[in-house]
Amino acid sequence: MTRAITLHDVSKAYTRGARVVDRLSLDIAPGEFLVLLGPSGCGKSTVLRMIAGLEDIDEGLLFLDGEYGNDLPPSDRDMAMVFQNFALYPSMTSRDNIGFPLRIESPGTDPAPRVAATARMLGIEDLLDRFPAQLSGGERQRVAMGRAIARHPSAFLMDEPLSNLDAKLRNHLRAEISQLTRELGVTTVYVTHDQSEAMSLGDRVAVLRGGVLQQVGTPRTVYSLPNNVFVAAFIGTPRINLLRGLVRAPLDGAMTISLGKQFLRLPEPLSLDHQLLRVQQGREVIVGLRSEAVRIAKPSAARPGEVALTGLVEHLEFQGHEVLVHFNTGSRPAVVPELEAPRPGPDRPARRRRREGTVLERLRERAGALRAGPVVTPAGPGRPDPAPAPAEPRVAGDLIVRTTPDIRLRHGMQVPLLVDLAHLFVFDQHGERICPNPERLPGLEE
Length: 446
Prior knowledge:
Layout: E1 5-13, E2 19-28, E3 33-37, H1 44-52, E4 59-64, E5 67-68, E6 79-82, H2 94-105, H3 112-122, H4 137-149, E7 155-159, H5 167-184, E8 187-192, H6 195-201, E9 204-209, E10 212-217, H7 219-224, H8 229-234, E11 241-248, E12 256-258, E13 263-265, H9 272-276, E14 284-289, E15 294-296, E16 306-318, E17 323-328, E18 332-333, H10 359-372, E19 399-403, E20 414-420, E21 424-427, E22 433-435
Parallel strand pairs: 3-8, 3-9, 6-7, 7-8
Antiparallel strand pairs: 1-2, 1-4, 4-5, 9-10, 11-12, 11-14, 11-18, 12-13, 14-21, 15-20, 16-17, 16-20, 17-19, 21-22
């Protein structure tokens, strides 16, 4: 049996009154693998603990299979939790650790058959008579997963179960978790700050920032159509290139986005997305270009929809199967403040918005985003450039391009580049996506 989990406007605050989870709404289908993704301290684990019943819900509603579940004790929720620190009993063997919850649930039943079946499933039959101190980190995590699986729960709740393991073992266990959960068909909610785990495991990914849900969708959707610049910067390796641009849309000439010393000329006839950029005439925007959206080639080799730039090689990262080239294009990088921090800074820009619906509905819609703070540091005339976030060390160049290792480059070389405008992201000063496929049409008063 698997379980549907619904969170409706769920909030949680601690003693000082700051909300660590702010009006979160999620629908998790039976058998779905949902990943809660975000920087440390954004409220992911708190959400998981509220689902498990280990934390009280201050506001909002929890439904389990459509039934009210706020006050249901953890023992009656039929869920199994896998913790980050394994949480094994040191005085018990692996066999006893796996069988312990079975003995608690059914005191008169022999747990041995289910323990043996679980051990075969996880390939840990030879570890059953060992104590936790005799196991490696990966073996302990398998035993912890076995303790959860043996119960045959209606939902798995996993709180960063792989974060204490080395990279190679994480990749191996990640594949095992994916295979096991799909074979069992059990609803799984998985918490992580590692976007690679989220993208490879989840049927859907829910991105949180400062306790506020930023976006939920399939891994492909959150990568290719991020709702805002925070999601765009958090998802993807290497991180998306974010540059400050200025839209110029003369009535008698081509529309361009100035990047400082160079500009992107939008090809005519303008696409619908690019036509909507006219509203941003004279305004600063944030241009997003993933590393695969730019290639090294001469202007004569341009394909339809590609425009030329030039870059000065500042740094090369050899990855074996590819090379990441850091270029200086004379552009101004846009800074996403406190990207890795749990709570945003105090600076909150005031702006006017026009949307459909009542004034109260519009206020409610924006309240959560305002509490989460701005997702980008806007810059304008007379305003100094923002300082980089402490967790974001400066790297050479302003544009990272992914290329093959057979291309020979050296430091200081001037290189022609082609930008594929089909993969161009444009965000407004507040970080909301306005190109491509904006979720709403921009208002002239903005």
